[in-house]
Backbone:
């Protein structure tokens, strides 16, 4: 038997086909049995007629419970009444495994589905999201490689913090204290631009986020890049291009999946077609005041609510730059563009209230300034000596950004919660299965 996928069988539309997969739905009478079969590609209705198969096959078909795995030989033809418009008249049925009674039925609680995540992955919804996620990861690699970037890898066990001590995961390490899971590749990536100049990675990052929100995971996939000789504008341009490239790929490859999960693909088109608005932090404060009567004192970071308001004003991501130094990380370059104490740091805020999808900056080149700011954060500069060497031996203007891949997938798929953007989500309360 030469098996073809269900979508291939539907494409052929007629003639003999051999397909295999899992029972998605089943119902029957004493003469006729309907099975909706599922594989990774699609679903199709299969009919087993008592008179068309052997006695054994008929008996087997009546013992089939949902998620049993089967091989089927039969004739495919058009049938408007069938769920995907085609039907297979079964001539041979081979049961590979009789499933036990499947625990997932209709109308289960979110908690139950999370406990049974390993099974819920088989749902059409999760299958569609996982396909889109795969497109997104593929597109990120494709984009950076097409632009001449090298893929480079930082350690996950790290000895310094980069994005603030409060979200560090401390790990036991043969009795040594001060070993953490990576929050970012950055401090181990900057040293490598002196070797490779343009680098990127897609790797897990870890944040001990105690906040239970719909956009925070404790383990997430982080697409990061770092470039030598780059200006602040170069970094922002790369960010905009990356998002456009990824969304374009999803629109090319995943219209069917977007439909399955109920995401209107039209809502994503402006991101591909339009330039993203670029505003400064100061302009953001003005907009918030003028359009929403929200008064943020200068120097306060933008919170989720404010980011959401800004995202309401546009149908593409919004780029916010020049944040006050005190709300951003120690490595961001003090800006020459303003008399105020701002940094050449940037956040990309997703449309539709999905929050920050990219954070990046030009990097501070002044070693004394970096040491000073590390001190202000309560860090010991000597722990960062390896990093500070990047500013001692041939320092060049450079910068980079990090993109939260699940945040991106969440927005692209318009998910209620970031947890559905990753197969096995990790949050403060959820670390099983
Ligand atoms: O803004 P962040 O903290 O920036 C950095 O880590 C930089 N070192 C990146 C760089 O310049 N190389 O994180 C980057 C992105 C955020 O914009 C957000 O999309 C995502 O990572 N992110 C999270 N995603 C899911 N769950 C969390 N807890 C996240 N924390 C950050
Ligand atoms: Mg950030």
Residues:
């Amino acid at each position: 038997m030469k098996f073809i996928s269900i979508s291939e069988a539907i494409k052929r539309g007629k003639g003999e086909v051999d397909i295999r997969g899992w029972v998605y739905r089943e119902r029957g009478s004493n003469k006729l049995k309907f099975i909706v079969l599922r594989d990774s590609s699609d679903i199709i209705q299969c009919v087993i007629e008592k008179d068309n198969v052997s006695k054994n096959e008929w008996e087997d078909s009546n013992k089939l419970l949902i998620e049993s795995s089967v091989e089927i030989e039969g004739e495919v033809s058009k049938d408007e009444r069938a769920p995907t418009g085609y039907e297979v008249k079964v001539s041979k049925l081979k049961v590979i495994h009789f499933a036990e009674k499947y625990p997932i039925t209709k109308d289960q609680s979110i908690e139950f589905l999370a406990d049974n995540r390993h099974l819920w992955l088989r749902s059409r919804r999760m299958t569609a999201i996982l396909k889109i996620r795969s497109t997104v990861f593929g597109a990120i690699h494709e984009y950076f490689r097409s632009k001449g970037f090298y893929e480079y890898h930082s350690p996950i066990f790290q000895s310094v913090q980069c994005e603030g001590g409060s979200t560090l995961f401390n790990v036991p390490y043969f009795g040594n204290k001060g070993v953490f899971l990576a929050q970012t590749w950055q401090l181990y990536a900057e040293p490598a631009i002196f070797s490779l100049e343009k680098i990127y990675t897609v790797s897990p990052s870890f944040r001990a986020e105690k906040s239970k929100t719909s956009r925070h995971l404790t383990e997430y996939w982080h697409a990061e890049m770092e470039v030598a000789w780059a200006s602040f504008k170069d970094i922002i341009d790369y960010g905009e291009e990356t998002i456009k490239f990824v969304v374009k790929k999803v629109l090319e490859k995943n219209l069917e999946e977007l439909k399955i999960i109920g995401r209107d693909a039209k809502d994503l088109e402006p991101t591909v077609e339009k330039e993203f608005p670029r505003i400064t932090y100061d302009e953001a404060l003005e907009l918030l005041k003028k359009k929403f009567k929200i008064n943020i004192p200068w120097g306060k970071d933008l919170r989720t609510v404010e980011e959401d308001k800004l995202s309401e004003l546009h149908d593409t991501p919004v780029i916010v730059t020049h944040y006050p130094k005190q709300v951003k990380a120690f490595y961001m370059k003090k800006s020459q563009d303003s008399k105020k104490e701002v940094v050449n740091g940037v956040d990309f805020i997703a449309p539709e209230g999905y929050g920050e999808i990219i954070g990046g900056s030009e990097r501070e080149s002044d070693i004394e300034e970096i040491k000073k700011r590390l001190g202000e954060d309560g860090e010991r500069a000597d722990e960062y000596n390896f990093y500070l060497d990047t500013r001692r031996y041939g320092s060049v203007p450079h910068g980079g950004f990090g993109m939260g891949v699940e945040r991106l997938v969440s927005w692209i798929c318009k998910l209620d919660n970031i947890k559905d953007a990753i197969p096995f989500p990790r949050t403060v309360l959820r670390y099983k299965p």
